[in-house]
Amino acid sequence: MRSLTAEGYTWSAEDGLEPYPYRIYRNAGRQLWRFPIADDDWCYEQDRLSPQAVLQRWKSRIRQARASQNYVAIGFHPWVEAPEERLAVLEEFFSWLCEEDDLQLMPFGDVLNTIRQFDESAFTGTNE
């Protein structure tokens, strides 16, 4: 983790059941935050799901998060999304997200900046 922060990395997205982002490393003013993801596109490879099945799965994750008024993150890998039919579903998913009025979409960098804005003390000090 020291090497990641030395190279300027500030966050990592990984599978996780945690309900919110959390700091996994702090040393000499450098921070590394974990953003737990609820789902990703690996189900294409692991579960051999069709693009439409993946689309429905992602929408379901969003609906569940909306119902519980919770944070949810979905991860994407460029090499997994590369086939044309998967890219079309990704575009359809993003369009659907943009049409949903009560969702706030944020890239992880913006999430980190929001954490910093509300809790600057989370970004100071030494390793705990």
Task: Note the topology.
Layout: H1 2-6, E1 11-15, E2 22-27, E3 30-37, E4 39-40, H2 43-46, H3 51-68, E5 74-75, H4 78-81, H5 84-99, H6 108-118
Parallel strand pairs: 1-3, 4-5
Antiparallel strand pairs: 2-3
Helix pairs in contact: 3-5
Q: Low-confidence parts, pLDDT < 50 over ≥5 residues?
A: none
Order of helical and strand elements: HEEEEHHEHHH
The biggest sheet, with number of strands, parallel, antiparallel or mixed sense and barrel status, is: 3 strands, mixed
**Estimated structural class:** alpha/beta
Tell me the total number of β-strands.
Answer: 5
| Radius of gyration, whole Å | 16 Å
Determine the strand fraction and express it as a percent band.
15-25%
Question: Counting H and I runs of at least 4 residues, what is the number of helices?
Answer: 6
Principal-axes shape call: globular
Features:
single chain, 128 residues, alpha/beta, three-stranded mixed beta sheet, 5 strands
Task: Please explain how this structure is put together.
Helix 3 runs parallel beside helix 5. The strands form two sheets. Strands 1-3-2 form a three-stranded mixed β-sheet. By secondary structure, the chain is α/β, with parallel strands linked by helices. Helices cover 45% and strands 18% of the residues. The protein is built from six helices and five strands; from the N terminus they run αββββααβααα. The radius of gyration is 16 Å and the shape is globular.
